[in-house]
Amino acid sequence: MGKRQVSGTRSIAASPETLFQMLTDPAQHPLIDGSGSVRAARVGGPQRLELGSRFSMDMQLGTQYKILNTVVEFEQDRLIAWRHFNGHRWRWQFEPADGGRTLVTETFDWSTARIPILITFSPFPRRNKAGIEKSLDRLASMFPG
In what order do the strands lie in the sheet with 63-75? Predict the structure, then answer.
């Protein structure tokens, strides 16, 4: 990973197709989120994400707010990424592994942000790295094995 990215990888006892299906459903995001900031998918948004989809989430980080996301990377059952208004991205990658398992990598990538230096010197990379690890823990607990 580059210096403007943090990520985590975990082996999950589910197929890439199953996991990808969860991540393309915005209503599932609060169940997976380990940061505690994702509250709910906004009513009226897409039920299934694809390249170019725009979806809003109700969030809370100190205060409640909503954030609009756009899906900017999409490879069926292998990769999905969305960007926020500032241009930074959240990316999920799914790699088939032995025994019906999947290597899941979540990445917070601020190399594409409008002003990446502001994120670099903020607490967000460290905070998001911890959230990524918790998200992967939550995902693993949904598919014990």
Answer: 5-12, 102-109, 89-96, 79-83, 63-75, 54-61, 38-41
